[in-house]
Amino acid sequence: MPIPGRLAAVVCAVSLVCLVGCSSRTGGISGFRSSATIAPPSEQDLSEVVSAARSTLGSRSAISVRLDSAAVFGGAPKPIGGGGLFDFGASRGQVELSRPIGTERVIFFPESVFVAQPQPGALLPAGKVWISAGLTEQSLATNFPQFVTQVESLNPGLLLSEVEWGATSAAPIGYGANAGSRQFSVSVDLTKAQSEAAGPSGDAFRRAIGYQLIEMSGTSVPTQITVDVEIDSGGKVVLLRSSPAGAGLGTVTVVLSQFGAKVNVGQPPRATVADISSLAPGGERENAGGGDSDGA
Q1: Taking a C-beta distance cutoff of 8 angstroms, is the pair 270, 288 a contact?
Q2: Quick check: 104 and 129 in contact, CB under 8 A?
Q3: With contact defined as beta carbons under 8 Å apart, do 248 and 17 qualify?
Q4: What is the CA radius of gyration of the chain?
């Protein structure tokens, strides 16, 4: 739908696509050695990948993030990098992305998210720094249809869950830099993943996967994505790489490390939060991050 005036500016403010194209440090994420399989898929490899995803989803870790070849509003794409911490079992975490003008911050809760840009300017009410969104609310589908896809594409818990719920085959593609780590090309059926979505973020992930499926409806294999996965010798996923459909973020690479790290994720002060629904035409939600969007 056409987005007029101030709302269009707000969409750009909360749209992570607006980040891409800015120069930044990338955190030194190393890629996979090869994208070509070195052996055919096997049930044993599939079982190993699914088991590793499930094990990792029960853990906490630090993460490093890199976005490559993303869509931009003019100019050549440049990498965006950052990092954060995640408690996958509780579906809570935070990510910070580096920009020349400062740090973009995203805080995840099971069914809600908070986004803060370095310079909110006049796009938000006076005193507001954060935008909150309930990821299962219909207002997002009506006024910000790409927001859920973009923001959840930065949530490593979604990609891990898609692998656990929807992986249909896994083929070896090489070995990692660390002793004993192995890399796989994993085929994931998003329809299967969506049907099996469960847990604290099940509803939010189900909606995010639905948006991906809509974006893929014109492709030759409209429900299938490929995810590169690296598993360490302890059976944990230590690297994920994929190109989420419809997000405009290009290739997203996530490195997981420091398993067992302490993760404390809290809500921003209520006085600094504006609910995204209040920024849309006819929005009636309070500007304090209340209701379903505050993660409570």
Answers
A1: yes
A2: no
A3: yes
A4: 19
pLDDT tens-digit profile of 226-280? 999 999 999 999 999 998 776 666 788 999 999 999 999 999 999 999 888 777 6
Q: DSSP letter string over 170-186? A: EEEEEE-SSTT-EEEEE
Name 84's Cβ contacts closer than 8 Å, sequence gap at least 6: 62, 63, 65, 93, 94, 95, 96
At position 41, the amino acid (one-letter code) is P
Q: Which residues pair with 84 in a beta bridge?
A: 63, 95
**What's the CA angle centered on 224, arms 249 and 191, to 5 degrees?**
105
Whole-model pTM over 0.70: yes
CA 225 to chain centre: 15
Tell me which amino acid residue 89 is.
G
95 by DSSP, 3-state: which? strand
If we measure between CA atoms, which residue out of 196, 233, 175 comes closest to residue 34? 175
Q: Answer yes or no: are the C-beta atoms of 185 and 179 closer than 8 Å.
A: no
| Helix or strand holding residue 215 (H, E) | helix 202-215
